Amino acid sequence: MTFDNARILLKADAIEKTFRGNRVLDGISMDVHAGEVIALIGPSGAGKSTFLRCLNYLEQPTGGSLHLDGEPVFADPLKPAKSELLSLRRRVGMVFQTFNLFPHLSVVENVTMAQRLNGLRSTSEAEEYALKLLAQVGVEEKAEARPSECSGGQQQRIAIARALSQDPELMLFDEPTSALDPEVGNDVLRVMRDLADAGTTMIVVTHEMRFAERVADRVLLLDEGRILEEGPPERVFRHPEHARTSRFLHAVLDR
Amino acid sequence: MNVEADTGALFQVIGTGLVVTILMTVVSFCAGSVLAVPVALMRTSRVWLVRAPATAFIDIVRGIPTLVWLLIIFYGLGSVVSLDPLPAALIGLTLISSAYLAENFRAGIENVHVGQKEAAAALGLSTAHQFWRVVAPQAVNIAMPPSASYAVALLKDTAIAAIIGVTDIIFFAQQEVARGAPAVTAFLVAGAFYLIVSVPLSYFSRFVDHKIRQKVVVV
User: Fold this and answer.
1) What is the pLDDT of residues A41-66, one digit of tens each?
2) Chain B residues with CB-CB distance to A163 below 8 A
3) Interchain proximity A96–B127, CB inside 8 Å
4) How many domains does chain B have?
5) Among B119, B125, B126, beta carbon nearest to A100
6) Could you give the C-alpha distances from A63 to A24, A26, A71, A225, in angstroms and in order?
7) Residue B219's pLDDT band (boundaries 50, 70, 90)?
8) Which PROSITE patterns match (chain A) (predicted)?
9) Is B111 near chain A, with CB under 8 Å?
10) Do B127 and A82 touch (CB under 8 A)?
11) Cβ separation of B216 and A103 shorter than 8 Å?
């Protein structure tokens, strides 16, 4: 698939993040086309997760700007207005490494709550949609259970359903399978692959190189807060330009 | 002398104070819980000017013995407005339980995993919804077991109210001793009445603790 003519959904321009004088992101720019799947890979500490969290402002960048659909997300990126923050986060879904389901709510309530509170759907519509999403990720039988009664793989798929409940234009995944055993991780990856096939725009921070190779349209390798290498997976994985990329790939593939 | 009949009579007389003891415990615990909410919210504020008064309130209230508080309120406030012993005790005990419960609530709020707030924020929930729908219910769950134990401590603390003349269990026990009842028997009877309430309360607090541990799995 090529995205040359597709519309640019998200434009991140020179995103910087400094934690107490420590430069974690050193001006990362990236265009994400509608329907594109991007894998963010790289050694730990490269800034992958921080960059992802800057895209929905769970971390506020110390420099740079975001555009969604050609429009700037914030009038002043350093002083985000509450309404601008809410609007960004309702358009961008996020799935966390540790699931972060709400333990005091049932599975279906986890998926309906934001729909109701954000005024997206009525209670009955929200519930109907939640059950549809839970069926889509294969955990409909757990709808009335508590998250603690679900396996890790189920919890992560519920978290995906919860994020999808906001009808996001873009989905962010922060190492979605790192806390899971490989066999249940595969269930999660299968759901993500289905989403990608259905045309969902996704940015995935991952250590799953096979997934990145098979599902991503583009791979970005981050190192020390910068994009070191970028391109279609077959090129990045088979013919990397940088020696550092080869070393990283050898290290992860030899595991 | 008929010891059995005397002890039975002691139970009857001292037992009349039980209602007041329970009343003091329940009212000051409930009112204290309500008052503890704004104190805990202020206490967890990031703004020093909001946080400081709450911290000062908690430290001052908890730093002075219950007995001294009740005397200060009864004689101090009582000199300004006419104040019966029971309302004075209720004010004092409510104040004290609000300070202790505020600290429990604060610990509850701070012990909700940071990922919970992030997940709520990432869903586009407003700051108020993030707190009231996601953080607060879990904070209450975490704060419940220590607060139930505190209810037992509070029940025992109410015994001090007899000093300012509240007609609780201790008040009647002392009255019977003054009338010539054997002190040991009278206070053993008083102790038995506290046990009647505190043992089920302790049992309940353990039950709540167990329930919540099952329900909330902190990831």
Assistant:
1) 999 889 999 999 999 999 999 999 99
2) 122-123
3) no
4) 1
5) B119
6) 12, 9, 18, 13
7) very low
8) ABC_TRANSPORTER_1, ABC_TRANSPORTER_2
9) no
10) yes
11) yes
Amino acid in position A80: P
Q: What is the pLDDT of residue A1?
A: 56
CATH of the domain at B22: 1.10.3720.10
Query: Which residues have a Cβ under 8 Å from the Cβ of A149 and sit 6 or more positions away?
Result: A142
Give ipTM to 2 decimals: 0.93
In angstroms, what separates the C-alpha of A79 from chain B's closest C-alpha? 16
Domain of residue B63: give its range.
2-218
Calculate what percentage of chain A has a pLDDT beyond 70. Answer: 98
Q: Under 8 Å CB-to-CB from A171, ≥6 apart: which residues?
A: A92, A93, A94, A95, A163, A164, A195, A200, A201, A202, A203
Is A163–B122 a contact, with Cβ atoms under 8 angstroms apart? Answer: yes
pLDDT band at A255 (very low <50, low <70, confident <90, very high): low
Q: Is A1 helix (H, G, I), strand (E, B) or coil?
A: coil
Q: Is A117's CB within 8 Å of B118's CB?
A: no
For A129-144, how does the pLDDT look when each residue is reduced to its tens digit (9 = 90+)? 999 999 999 999 999 9
Residue B43 distance to chain A (closest CA, Å): 24
pLDDT digits (tens, 9 = 90+) for B53-110: 999 999 999 999 999 999 999 999 888 888 999 999 999 999 999 999 999 999 999 9
Chain mean pLDDT for chain A = 94
Query: For the residues of B12-54, what is the DSSP string, one character each?
Result: HHHHTTHHHHHHHHHHHHHHHHHHHHHHHHHHT-SSHHHHHHH
